[in-house]
Amino acid sequence: MTILSERARRIAPSATMAMDAKTKELLRQGVDVVNFTVGEPDFDTPAHVKKAAVEAINAGFNKYTPVAGIPELKEAVCYKFKRDNGLTYTPAEIAVSIGAKHSLYNIFQVLLDPGDEVIIPAPYWVSYLEQVKVADGCPVVLSSREEQGFRLDAAQIKEVLTPRTKALILNSPSNPTGCVYSRRQLEEIAALAVEKQFFVISDEVYEPFIYSDTGHVSIAQISPEVKEMTLIVHGLSKSHSMTGWRIGYTAGRKEIIAAISSLQSHSTSNPASMAQKAAVVALTGSQDSVTEMREAFRRRRDIIVKRLNSIPGLSCRLPEGAFYVFPNISKLFGRRYKGQTVADSMQLAELLLTEAHVATVPGSAFGAEGYLRISYATSEANIEKGLDRIAAFVAALE
Ligand SMILES: Cc1ncc(COP(=O)(O)O)c(C=O)c1O
Fold first, then answer.
1. Do 344 and 269 share a structural domain?
2. With a 6 A CB cut-off, is 243 part of the ligand 1 pocket?
3. C-beta 321 within 6 A of ligand 1
4. Structural domain tally of the chain?
5. Which ligand 1 atom is at minimum distance from the Cα of 40?
6. pLDDT at 16 over 70
C-alpha cells in the first residue's frame, strides 16, 4: 500500500522554506548570518491596529464569525478598493481568508477541473505552481526575460493559449523580481483575456511598495469586461506588516466568491475573529505606517542595487516594486571557490550561506536559473554587512 496519496506526492517542498530552515539552524548554532531570505517586512504591526485586536479580545469578540469575513471587514475591503484603485465591489464580491495564500488555494480549488491549464509567468512565486497541481490543474510555465524587465507581453501569452486555458496569474509588483506591469501592458493582456475568455488571478499583495511614478494599476481597472474575468488576491501581511495575523482576501464574481465561502465553511471556517477586527482598522485607519515602510524600502532598494552592480560579475536591474532584488549571477558560473566549481544558483546560494554567512534564495526555486533573490526587508546596516560579505566572496572566486 502506498501511504501517501498521489496528490500529496505531487507537492514539492518549498525551496524558500528549506533555505530558511538551514539559515535558522546556523543562527541557532550562534553563527552571525545575514538573512536575505525573509519574505516579510521587518517592521512591527502598527500600534493602532494591535490596539483594535486587544480591544476586540477584551470585548469578548472571540467566537465564530461569518465564514468569509465579518460584514464590517468586507465593507472595509470594498472601501480600500474604492480609495486606492477606484474599483467598485460589493460585500458579496469579497471573501476573506486566512492569508492571501489561502485565498489563492481556494481560488484554484473552485476554478479548476482536472487538466485545466493555468499560465504562470516565470520567475514565479513558488506556491502558485504547487497549488495549481494540488487542485489537479496543469501549470503552464511561461518564462519572461530580464531584458523585458521580467514582464510578459500579450503576444507571448497568446502563443501558449489552448482550449484548456482557464486562467493566467499576474503578480505585480512581483515576488521575486520586483517588476511592475504598466497600464499599457495590462491593457493588452486585458483585451486578450476578454477575447479568449480566461480568468486573470491578479495577486496584488505588494501593491503599496511601488517606487516608480506610475504607481499601481490593477488589471480590473482596465474595463468592466476584464473586471468580470479578474480575481484580485490581496492581503494585509505585506501592506501592513501583519504576516502573523493571517488575513487575505479575494475580490471577484459573486458566484466564485460564494463557492469560496462554501469551500471555506468545510475547511477552515472564519479567519481569527480578533484579526478581522484589526484588519478593519488597518484598511480604514491611518496609512502613515505604510508610507513610512515604502520610503524605507525605497532607500534600501537604491543602496542594494548600487552595491550589487559595483561587484564585478554581478548585475542587477532596478526593480520598480516589492522588497526583493533579483541579481543576475550567471557570469559567476564556472568559477571556483576552494576547489568547488560554481555550477548553478543553488550551489552559489549554498556556498554564500556556508562560506560567507549570507542567506539568499536561488533563482531556480522561482523557475529562473542564473539569479538569486535577495530580500531587503532588513536594516540598512544588515544590507551593508551582507553586501560586504558577498563582495569579498566574489572577489575570492578563482
Ligand atoms: C506573491 C505573494 N503572494 C501571496 C503571498 C502570501 O501572503 P499571505 O498568505 O501571508 O497573505 C506571498 C507571501 O510571501 C507572496 O509573496
1. no
2. yes
3. no
4. 2
5. 14
6. no
